[in-house]
Amino acid sequence: MEKSNWTKEEFIAYILLYATKANFVETPEEKEIILSKVNAQSYQKIHKELDNDNDFQSIQKILANLGKFSYTKRNIDLLISEIRMLYLSDGDCNSNENTMFLGLKRLLKDKTF
């Protein structure tokens, strides 16, 4: 599994930025939501890292950090809500975003610690 030395904030930045990759466009509204959850330094650092990761690496990092930060069912539900809010922020949740949302939701719910 992919290892990282992230803080919890950096993990949140990673998963939210990963979610924005669904339609290959990070809208200003999505960026604003992410920056309301994490600081600009974490955002920039994680954005750079994510740009160099493929999907397999991203999924491995997400799974490893769910365990590292001992996410509970409640934490997972809150994270899923934040991802949903991210997709709805620009007023349109297209089919790519919906597919990514369902995939992330399944991945996260299957890995509750």
Largest sheet: none
Q: What shape does the CA trace take?
A: globular
Q: What is the overall number of helices?
A: 6
How many DSSP-defined strands? 0
Helix content: over 70%
Note the gap between the termini. Answer: 17 Å
Order of helices and strands: HHHHHH
- What is the radius of gyration? 13 Å
Are there runs of 5+ residues with pLDDT below 50, and where? none
Average pLDDT confidence is: 89
Please indicate the count of domains: 1
Oligomer: single chain
User: How much of the residues is beta strand, in percent?
Assistant: under 5%
Please describe the topology of this protein:
Elements: H1 8-20, H2 28-37, H3 40-52, H4 55-68, H5 73-88, H6 95-110
Helix pairs in contact: 1-2, 1-3, 1-5, 5-6
Task: Write up this protein.
With 113 residues, the chain is mainly α. The protein has one domain. 73% of the residues lie in helices and 0% in strands. It has 6 helices and no strands. Helix 5 packs antiparallel against helix 6.
